[in-house]
Specification:
It contains eleven helices and no strands. By secondary structure, the protein is mostly helical. The protein starts with a helix and ends with a helix.
């Protein structure tokens, strides 16, 4: 066991092994509600372990930064251009629909407000995490499951290394960075496309445009937007990886279960954000 693990008082890998064995034993013994609660407890426990490791300086030694940057490249670098083009095309279609509809009903003054609220506040914080989840975190969860079942975690533990710190944490940080990057790029593109679609190719409307957008992004709305984006990112990255650490199901079952759990939690977060923004 490494010195950092000894200072924490417990080996995260050993505790993770115990929880995984409980999850493997539970389906044949516990009722469905208890299995459901155990699954959420497992996710919360691993998430708490990863949060402690993320703020521990010892987690960023011996090439950990390089592994994290590699995961950022895997999660966002290869798909940044494709996602940006896809979101630009999607934004153009949605902006055109909203602007034409607003003009048809004599509500042209509210077109910009509708575009910013629909695209920037609601769709982009949801699209970026889902894209990263499908293209990165769910396949990464499968890789972790294969590595764990193949004995890679046990070999790291025997060498005095923490598998969570070396294998899971870089993927979590890389996925979170990818979601933030894709969301930020998409927001900038959406705001630019909204400006040119409504005002045309002129810079004369920069002042009223900035004033209108600034009125939308008040302190409360900005706080909810940032919190929702971070919570969506954590949900889309953590849950598929955590389910990949379990060894009690087939590949299809664990991926579907993680996806359902992720979508349910994201729906709850979205409902709470809508209540905070509009009620």
């Amino acid at each position: 066991m490494s010195e950092s693990a000894q200072r924490r008082g417990a080996d995260p890998a050993a505790i993770l092994n115990q929880l995984t064995r409980v999850r493997a034993w539970a389906p044949g013994v516990l009722s469905h509600p208890w299995r459901w609660l155990l699954g959420w407890w497992f996710a919360l426990f691993v998430g708490a372990q990863l949060a402690v490791l993320a703020f521990s300086p010892s987690s960023y030694r011996r090439g950990s930064v390089a592994r994290g940057l590699l995961q950022v490249h895997e999660a966002a670098g290869r798909s940044l251009l494709g996602f940006t083009l896809l979101m630009a095309l999607f934004n153009l279609v949605v902006i055109h629909i909203l602007v034409v509809t607003a003009n048809a009903y004599g509500l042209a003054a509210f077109a910009l407000d509708a575009v910013v609220r629909v695209l920037v506040l609601e769709l982009i914080p949801l699209a970026a995490p889902l894209y990263v989840a499908v293209n990165y975190s769910i396949p990464a969860g499968s890789e972790l499951r294969r590595a764990r079942q193949g004995g890679a975690f046990a070999r790291l533990t025997a060498q005095g290394l923490d598998p969570l710190s070396r294998e899971v944490l870089p993927r979590v940080l890389g996925g979170l960075s990818a979601v933030v990057l894709l969301a930020a790029v998409s927001c900038v593109i959406s705001l630019l496309l909204a400006y040119f679609s409504i005002y045309g190719f002129t810079w004369a409307a920069i002042a009223p445009y900035s004033h209108a957008v600034g009125q939308i992004f008040g302190p409360t709305v900005t706080l909810i937007f940032c919190l929702k984006t971070v919570l969506f990112a954590l949900t889309a990255i953590l849950l598929p990886l955590v389910h990949g650490l379990g060894a009690d199901a087939t590949r299809t079952h664990f991926e579907v279960r993680g996806l359902v759990q992720m979508l349910a939690l994201m729906l709850l977060i979205e409902i709470l954000s809508l209540v905070g923004n509009y009620y």
